[in-house]
Amino acid sequence: MRVFLYSELQRQIEKSGVGRAILHQRKALEANGVCCAERWQDADVVHINTVFPHSFFLAKKAKRHGIPVVYHAHSTKEDFRNSYVGSNLFASLFQRWIKLCYQQGTRIVTPSFYARSLLKYGIEKKIHVISNGIALSEYQKDTAAGQRFRKQYGYTPQDQVILSVGMQIRRKGILDFVQLAKAMPQYQFIWFGCTNLRFVSRKVRQAVLHPPKNLQFAGYVPKEQLQDAYSGCDLFLFPSYEETEGIVVLEALAMQIPVLLRRIPVYTEWLKESQDVYFAGDLQEFETKAAQILQGKLPDLTENGYHAVQKKDLPNVGKQLLRVYHLPISRSQTCFPALPVSSGSTSSIPP
User: Fold this and answer.
1) Does the model's pTM come out above 0.85?
2) Which tens digit of pLDDT belongs to each residue from 304-336?
3) How do residues 33-74 score in pLDDT, each as one tens digit?
C-alpha cells in the first residue's frame, strides 16, 4: 500500500517546522518499508500537512474517490498569534478555517498532547498524537564540526556560545533573546533562522537589524551547518512562548547539549524539569539559569535529555503512523522515486 504525502507551498514553508515535518514523515515511513506515491490517485492514504486552500480541496477530492485522508494538525490559533503583523487580528478567523480543514480528515494527527488539548474547536473526530520525530542517527555531536562552526562565526575556543533556532517572530521569544544578550555581555549569542522582516513588528525588525555586539543573526542555513552549530555551542536556549512540539528542541536534545527552555505546557508533558532539561519562566530566571549552566553550577542533564528524545526516533514515529493508516509494517513494498510537494500552483493538485 502507498501513501501520498502532501505539503502545499513547500518551497515557501520548507524553513518552518511544518515544512520539515513532511520530510520526517517520508523518512519515518521508509524506515518501515512504506513508500510514497507520486500522485494522490495512486495512493491508499492521502496525508496532508498544510491548511492552504489547495490542501483543503485535495482532501475533499480524495474522499470523494474513496481514499482515506489523514490531516496533520500542525497549526493552532495559539501558535498563529504573535507571529506576523495582523496575526492577532485574524486569529479567530484562522481558527475557523483550520477547523474546517481538519474536519476533512478521515483521521487527524497532531504532534503533542498539548496541541490536541488546544484543538477544542468543535472537532468531534478522534485526534491521534504522534511526534514529528527526529532522525537520531543523523544528529551526532562532532568536535571537528563544532570547531568549524566557531571558526566560521569568529568565536574562540574560550568563548561560551548560547544558541537559539527559529523564525524571527515575536512568538519565538526573539525579543527576550536580544534582551538576554544585552544583559549578559560576557557570553556570545547566535540565532539561526529567518523571516521576511516586512511581515514582523517594528520592534522585532529593529532588534534583528540592530543587535548588540555579542549577538549574531546568522539567518537560515542548511541542516549540516546547523548541526555544526549544535556541536560547537555551549547552551541551547529556546525562549519560545508557544509550540505544538518544537522540532529544534528534539534536535538539541539529540545532539546532547545543555538545553534551557521556557516553562510552557508542551514540554512539561514529556520532559522533567531539572532532570531532562532546565526551564525558566521569565527573563531573570533565564539569565540566572543560563549563567549557572555555563559556569557548571548546575548538573549536566544532557544524557537524560538524550534518553527522553530516543522514543521520538523516526522509525518509532513511522510505526505510529502506520497504526493510524491501518497499514501493515512490511519491507517488501516497491518504492516510488520522489516525494511529491506542491509549488503552490493550481496544477499541483492533479485533476
Assistant:
1) yes
2) 999 999 999 999 999 999 999 984 433 333 333
3) 998 999 999 999 999 999 999 999 999 999 999 999 999 999
Angle in degrees, CA 130, 174, 176, rounded to 5: 110
CA distance 178 to 204: 10
Per-residue HEC secondary structure of 267-336 comes to: HHCCCCECCCEEEECCHHHHHHHHHHHHCCCCCCCHHHHHHHHHCCEHHHHHHHHHHHHCCCCCCCCCCC
* Local structure of 234: helix, strand or coil: coil
Tell which residue, 181, 173, 13, has the closest CA to residue 83.
173
Using DSSP's 3-state secondary structure scheme, residue 189 falls into: strand
Asked if 202 and 85 touch (Cβ cutoff 8 Å), the reply is no
Q: Which of 37, 119, 35 is nearest to 322 (CA)?
A: 35
Three-state DSSP at 343 gives coil
Quote the CA–CA distance of 167 and 17 in Å, as a whole number. Answer: 9
Edge-first strand listing for the sheet containing 259-262: 215-219, 188-192, 161-165, 235-238, 259-262, 278-280
- Helices 202-209 & 174-183 angle (0-180, nearest 10): 40
Rounded to 5 degrees, what angle do the CA atoms 296, 302, 308 make? Answer: 150
